[in-house]
Design goal:
CATH class of the domain at 54-370 and 463-469: Alpha Beta
Distance between the termini: 65 Å
Bound molecules: N-(aminocarbonyl)-beta-alanine, zinc ion
CATH topology of the domain at 54-370 and 463-469: TIM Barrel
Order of helices and strands: EEEEEEHEHEEHEHEHHHEHEHEHHEEEE
Largest sheet: 9 strands, mixed
Strand content: 15-25%
Helix content: 25-40%
Shape: globular
CATH superfamily of the domain at 54-370 and 463-469: Metal-dependent hydrolases
Number of helices: 11
């Protein structure tokens, strides 16, 4: 009988720190050995010519989120996680959203019902707090954080989710007390509302004006406000989906002051621009790219690369928030055709994240291969309480691995995607570097674009408190 259930042989292992040639031996779903030459395993995979990296962890995805009267999301757990593994990912952290008036615990239970037995990859939940009542802040949230839902998101915009400054402060105070990491959507609600009304009054209704309704200054102002609230209460915060220079520089400024402020950016902010939203009639393709914050311009791509290179951003996510394009549930639904404010915000991207970052980042010399691993896997695990179980290759880690062909040229097309949406915003992009085998806890789940795992292979992950959520110890509070 063999010592190993699986041996991955002859590949070049890449972690956030190292690159070396070795075999990997897997036993009971975990990495049991990494060595120059291992004995034969019950199953063998020849990885020569391939990079062997930790499976992607995407810590910002939306699946099966309630639509608040708007169109239905195109992905639940089945299709969203299927798309994830095809794209080289092994763990997702979607959001369990609390509809206003509902209990947080009930919302989490609802998400479990949607996910349990229906996931192709491992998953944990961030919470979304929309209704921070005394019982939510006093009991439910601390209890859920202790139960392994150790991060949550709050919104500074969107009618159904926005928190005012007083609520943000109360939520930050609660997070500090229970050790949760707060993710903040930084865009100013009133400014967007005001701009939207002015644009509509001027007859500017097409999808492109979505981008003009929330320019960078709106994101920068909100980022500064969130940073200030965090500083006042000594609450570490993660500013998510940063789109360009202005918010990036706010985070850098905060970090230089020694504040615990972290940054996330996403695929769309280095590969799409606001011009993609053009198509000035409501029935053209601009709505395919409507997301918030909106993609900016090529100068913003460079600012984002600067933030990546200089360590302002710790994580690179997809913000996969998939809607259909066609049909009554799609971005082109009859109401959405009447004005940009009704176009659902969000784009699919979980499957394209790794290839686009590899191509634009590693191949074009902007980041190293080790930084690629850190940005797409290791830092997500560390930031969100999954390390050292997930996020690297070493003895004791879950055997979550992607075999990557760095020379494989592909064109991203809807017909090769595995998500539920009927389009990809990255249609036609050529990339070099592609996931060829995805391994979840020692089991091959995707191979050459085919899903070979089973729905239900994915397990729920109870997460530890994030070490990054530890207060710095200098509050203004009495
Ligand atoms: O447009 C986007 N990104 N929608 C998803 C929700 C969010 O704010 O992350
Ligand atoms: Zn957001
Ligand atoms: Zn999001």
């Amino acid at each position: 009988m063999s010592t190993f259930d699986l041996v991955i042989r002859g590949g070049e292992i890449v972690t956030a720190a190292d690159r070396f040639r070795a075999d990997i031996g897997v036993r009971d779903g975990r990495i049991a050995a990494v060595a120059d030459r291992l004995e034969k395993g019950a199953r063998e995979i020849d990885a020569s010519g391939l990079l062997v990296m930790p499976g992607g962890i995407d810590s910002h995805v939306h699946l099966a989120q309630p639509a608040f009267g708007g169109p239905k999301m195109a992905d639940g757990f089945e299709t969203g996680t299927r798309s994830a593994i095809a794209g080289g990912n092994t763990t997702l952290l979607p959001f369990a959203l609390q509809p206003r008036g509902a209990s947080l615990r009930a919302s989490v239970n609802e998400y479990h019902k949607q996910a349990d037995g229906q996931s192709y990859c491992d998953y944990g939940f961030h919470l979304i707090v929309t209704d921070p009542t005394p019982s939510v802040l006093g009991q439910e949230l601390p209890a859920l954080v202790a139960d392994g839902y150790s991060s949550f998101k709050v919104f500074m915009t969107y009618d159904a989710m926005v928190l005012n400054d007083r609520q943000l402060l109360e939520v930050f105070e609660c997070a500090r007390g229970c050790g949760a990491l707060v993710m903040v959507h930084c865009e100013g609600y009133d400014a967007i509302k005001f701009m939207t009304e002015r644009l509509e009054a001027a007859g500017k209704m097409a999808p492109y004006y979505h981008a003009l309704s929330r320019p960078q200054v709106v994101e920068r102002e909100a980022a500064h406000r969130a940073i200030s609230h965090g500083e006042l209460l000594d609450t570490p915060i993660m500013i998510v989906h940063v789109s360009g220079r202005e918010a990036m520089e706010q985070i850098r400024w905060a970090q230089q002051r020694g504040l615990k402020v972290y940054g996330e950016t996403c695929t769309q902010y280095v590969s799409l621009t606001a011009d993609d939203l053009k198509g000035l009639n409501m029935d053209e393709t601009g709505s395919k790219y409507v997301c918030s914050p909106p993609p900016r311009d090529r100068a913003s791509w460079e600012a984002i690369w600067e933030g990546i290179r200089t360590g302002v951003f710790q994580t690179f996510s997809s913000d996969h928030c998939p809607f259909y394009y066609e049909g009554d549930e799609g971005k082109l639904n009859p109401k959405a055709r009447t004005g940009f404010r009704w176009v659902p915000n969000g784009i699919p991207g979980v499957e394209a994240r790794l290839p686009i970052l590899f191509d634009r980042g590693v191949n074009q010399g902007r980041i190293t291969i080790n930084e690629f691993v850190a940005l797409t896997s290791t830092n997500h695990a560390k930031m969100y309480g999954l390390y050292p179980r997930k996020g690297s290759i070493g003895v004791g880690f879950d055997a979550d691995i992607v075999l990557w062909d760095p020379n494989r040229r592909e064109t991203i097309r809807q017909e090769i995607m595995h998500h539920g949406s009927d389009y990809t915003p990255y249609e036609g992009m050529s990339v070099t570097g592609w996931p060829v085998v995805t391994i979840l806890r020692g089991k091959v789940v995707a191979e050459e674009g085919r899903i070979v795992g089973q729905m239900g292979d994915g397990q729920f992950l109870q997460r530890d408190l994030s070490p990054y959520a530890k207060p710095a110890g200098r509050t203004f509070l009495p």
